[in-house]
Fold each of these.
Amino acid sequence: MHSKKNIKPVLDWANANGEAKITDRIFMKLLPYFLKENLQITEKMVNSTQSIEISNELYELVCNMAEELVGSSFVTKG
Amino acid sequence: MFDINDYKFDEEHNYLEIGGEAMIFHCHHYITNLQRTILDADYLDSSLFLIGSASDAVYYQLTNLCDGLNIEESKQMAKDIYKTFGYGLIDLSSMDENGCKLETTKSFFSKTWKMKFGKSDKPVDYYTSGFLAAAYAVIYKKELKDINAVQTTCMACGDEVNSFSVELGECNFAIYPKKQPTKFNTTPKVSLNWEHEEAVTNAFLGAHATMIGNEEGLIPAFGVYLVRNQSDYVNRLQFEFVRQMTEVAGEYGVTLAGELLMEAGHACGFFTYGGIMTSPEWEGAVKPYLKTKEDWIKGLAALVNTMGWGYHTAVELSEQKAVFRNYNDFEDLSYIRMYGKSEYPTHWANSGGFTGLMQLVYNTDLIDGERVETEEGFREMRRSKVGYKTKMTKGISCGDDFLEVEVWL
């Protein structure tokens, strides 16, 4: 069984620290990976939900992309 | 040889055509943002349409403009329009029957990409590759499908010059079918319903002709770099991008691409309109008529209706919600010329521009003279304010009589 992780905190962090529409930009850049997991997400959906569970592998890709586009590291709290 | 004043502005349709091509201004914020969005999708073979969109539009335009000219005159014409339109400088003297290898240090695309995003990993001046392919084809009577045109070095990558190679060989860009002539929609317009509209519009009629390339072939104006695009070039970039995104991700591809295309328009509206509304020209010819924030929006619409983007108007306007229309907008006219009817609205740049305008007037202190000019300022403002939402409700390419977009808080 594959474990899942909630990507919303990463996307919220990117939104708070990056350019406008940065989450849609992340989805655009990683589209083939999202489609592989049957995920079709937009920024609007991110803003209206508490949790978006994705595979560990995709989580790492999104995290790395978010950090690249924001230009700093995502540090989880707690 | 080329003089922009030879081409009359069509006041009835708020439209300008040169050599059979509709012409529209865009700012560097829009163009670079649009191109970056396309390049972000690196799983698409986008260079085919990035170059092909330019070569197609320029080929058609130069074919008309160079009709009856000899080789040297045609080279001069190509060089002149490239400079006048704000793309930079090119010297075609080395071009011959076999093509050319060309270098330049003046390039709108390379300069403004670096300004906005910093260094690029790969060359960014696809337009000039397409332009040179088209110039070679027209001047030496070649077919586009037999031409290979590549950019080999780029100042945006840190190189000292932009270098291009154009020769006969395997074609490395898309070739498109012949397009239809422009078909205007004749639906009566709902006017801006603003007593000063005519005064403002008349004050700026013809002003577009003063915005031509300087000694560097660039058009710095209103705090941005403008470029006068062949409308079908820049719009085909959007349309081909969305078409390819549809192939990859169906309807979701249209939605995702559309959001980012509107963001490019938003940045354009925000920066360029902000520059216009803080310019000395605005101060002298428009500001005396402005009392309310709605006046600022209507004043801007009355002014930009002289720029060739169609007729902008608002049928509902308040801080909470606006319904904008554009009669004969450049995106829909372009779509119809090249593709016919669309199943979804295709006016992302117009819609993003309207949203940027609302953001600018209602969510900043612009009317008090405080302008947000920097990228960081733009980001900070977007993060700290509740953003306007946008919905494209009608489009001429969908069969409607006008473009309509709702923008609300």
Amino acid sequence: MRSGQALVQVSNNATPDAGTVPALLPPVRMIRTTGRGLLCGLALAACVGTIGEAPPDLEAAGDPPPEQPQMPLHRLNRLEYDNTVRDLLGTGLQPAQAFPPDGESAGFDNIAEALQLTPTLLDQYYTAARTVVDDALDDVPAFGAQFGRDAFTTPAGYAVGSLWALSGAPITVTFEAPGQDLYFVYIRLGASQIGAAPAPQWQLELDGVPVETYPIPGTAAALATHTHALQLEMGSHTLRFIPTNYVNEPVANNANNILVASIEVASETEQPGPGRERVFICEPDDSDGCPTEILHAFARRAWRRPLSAEEEVALGSLYTQLTTDGETTEAAIRLGLRAIMVSPKFLYRARTLDDDERDGRLDPFTLASRLSYFLWSSTPDQRLYDAANAGELSTPEGLEAAVGWMLADEKAAGLRDGFAEQWLALRLLEQASPSPEVYPDFDDAVRDSMKAASKQFFADFVSGDQPVANMLDPDFAYLDDRLARHYGLDPVGSETMTRIDDAPRRGLLSLGGWLTAASHAEHSSPIKRGLWVSDAILCEPVPPPPPGLAIEPIVLGDDGTVREALERHRDDPTCASCHALLDVLGMGFERFDGTGRMRPEADLDARGELPDGTTFEGAVALAELIEREAFVGCLTQKLFTYGLGRTVEGFDAPIIEDIASRATKEGFSLADLLVAIVTSPSFRMAPPRTEGDRP
Amino acid sequence: MRRRRFLQGLAGATLALPALELFGRPEARAQTSPPRLLVYYLPNGRRPEWWVPSSNVNGLIFPAESSALQPYADRALSLVGLDNTAATASPGAAHAMGTATVMTGTAMPDLNGLKNNVSLDQLVAQAHGSDTRFRSLQWSAGEPGPCDVGGSSCAYTQSVSWAGPSQPLIPTIDPSAAFDRLFNGNTDGLSGPEAEVRKRSLGSVLDHVRDDARDLESRLGVDDRARLEEYFTALRELEKRLGDAGPTCEVPESGPGGALDYPSRVQAFHELIRFALSCDQTRVLSFMIEFGLSGRSHDFIDAAGGHHALSHYGSTAQYERLRRLERWHSEQVAHLLSLLSSPDEDGHSLLDETLVLVMPSMGEGSSHNHARNCPLLFGGGASFRTDGRQIVFDGADRLANLHVTLLEAYGIEGSFGLDGARFGDDGDAVISGILS
């Protein structure tokens, strides 16, 4: 049986095939005990239904304990790639946004088994390496200002993707020139022209004085760049772009428009790029050995471990070959950096046979990478390397100290961007499209606020010392004015996320982010919400509909109530085993509409029901019913999955149970929980070598 | 123009071809080599009342909602009601299983990991793709969205092309990136003597990278060495792309502009498809107008609401919006066909040499009907009977046999199903009436 197989799916098989007994079942029993505990944690007298039933006790005395699962080659995912090039080179570019989507498994996009490398992706890595190296090392204007769509929106115009269509209204940008200089203004734009309308033109005005009028180059599908060169004094300057011949005659079908993507201002005077200082550790002009030293230093950081003698020689030879063939020093160094970034030693995290795994612990540099990609979604920094080098990561105390300062570092945002965004369904929130007719109030500002509120909520637990179990019933929430208005609450007096104590809506189960993501375009979805709660909060993912299921088409005009529609699920025995749980869990959230707002209706049917008939209504009531240890155990399991980059297996089960128990009894904070995870054997011990590997 | 020269050249004279040819077709291949293959994927099924043409002695008549396809009716072959048995036999994550199986014909035993099979277009690419710079290309105008239920991997909804059981070829979704890959030369944009130096340098860089990768390989455990194979495969493709002379047609000056909205991306990819085929950069392409289970709201055509939700319409209003959405899809397919069918001086077009296989993820979307899929074939030249006819199966034949038929058309021998079937789980017979 492949070690990558997810336990919970094995255990959730509604009709276990008695004829085939997977060898992995004994450890399954351990998770299942926890699982039954989770469901029974809902204060039930007895569990009903096939979910939650423990499979037969197949662990005979004398069975060997489960082995620690292997640590396969682990490709960087998109978030990790972008953060890594940011930290290695100082570039602000995010080339991975153009990469194909990452494979996903177990709810996360950083699972080693699911991350593949296709020819297309290597091609993009190759191109990206050049782009970020040049961006980091090219000289940049001493002064630069960028204005995107948001800077020049006006009531008259409208957005076309990330372009802004002016519709005749002028746009204005203002900036502060730090000194007398020549400044270049780069405008990315295009024209649209329909019917007999003239080609659009506009006039540039500088500080109120007309400079020039010209026709707009380019089109929406093929933007052009227009450049102005302006000699300016120090101080504030205003540029105004005024369309001169806007036409909009819908009846005659004549129209023209100007579409602007961006306006950039850059001084002629330049300074070294953001990466030069950190990459050029010496001046090539000063010594012959410097270029090779630069490549060695970069490779050590990019490959996340010390170099072998052969690697050092190879890099030196590459540099020599390139300059001998005619490349300049600068070009040859840049080509060397690109080679380092296309190597699998950069693109993959790997455990090698040469690793220093004394006392069965992972090599310190392998462990350092595992730590930094867990807590930062990025590469280790010098401080972490030094700690690895000094052997500090070999002890629980050293690991605890590292977790402390790593979470205090601003790079800890990577844990929110990676883990929290996925656990709290914020990536799905990006794709949610609430109907503008049913929910006219919902716009991108609300979406952004919901995302920020969920992430800030999580961040509060990362930096605070309150028990992590309080996520279910904290005494605070995060709101800004926009979100407060959306929820129908009093304004909080801030445009940015603010912590509000004793807020009316509190806790994980009331977060608008996942509630909106788990809805349909025109109404809430008890099924999706039941699914989210059972997976993210209780770690009880539900199997898919069985094969060959024929779904009856819905008859037009047949509305019924939501509950009646769901009754159909429960009446059909094929559907009932899963939907009996899901639907009624989700029904308890019906007071939240499809965009997370509270519905005011007095006679709303928002009665959630548990299999034994216990009813609850609303997020707060459900939060009270959930056993804290069950929740903490599930969060631990999610963090294990994300931090290890694999599904949890039999080996991890007793470790997770133990951590969950201690964490609940002793009121672990989220930081304490993370320490418990990274000091666990699953995280820091080296899996046994498989047969066939060289010793 | 070049075709005429070719005929004249049969007398034995050697032709000196101009160095740059504008969007020309490759010499000597027009009649003798198999057609190119373009798979055009549509998500969330198609409503038969809007998609399936009626057929009489005069040809195909498309319903009003897909009337945009009517100009191409005489170059079409309508297949009605092929049974995608693989999707039905897979676990009930309907969109994942539909999308994953429409080109592989292989049922997934469960939803853990990736357990598909090589897709038809990749078999064609393996057989006929080695002459072109890119063996095959996979593009999509979609944006990754929620994946299907039961823990099924997102790769299932995000790819129709598979290089192997666990190797989804996830499409490029950024037209600029696709453009760069097509037309980005191997000299970092330099010219003259600097370009020669750079070409050599990039060769040295890749040599170093390859040696470096071998070094890593020698230090890995047995399982990881097997995993690293995917890297070496990718590196070989990269070397090939950089080693070739580059496109033999006029490179457009600039690619697609900055961040485009969805409809513009679709059209940008259509243009890129035309470039890629006419510049002979590849002979095998798959394009997904959106990913499987797409929840995209098509506000720009007054069809607001997630596509998937609309496909399970529960009201007349939603039905109407779905109608507008599916009409728009037909118009997009027609737009692509118009780009491929514009003739050169001899009256020949890309469509004569390219088989366009429009493949919906399933039949009717509201009931996840895998058993009545209605693909459309266009063009493909003399090998295919794409001449305005229709074959109605009504479930009597399997979708996998369409793929067997294509294997036959492309001269690909052998059995590719995991259990020895010619293709997929149960593809074993050529469907009569499709090939000439």
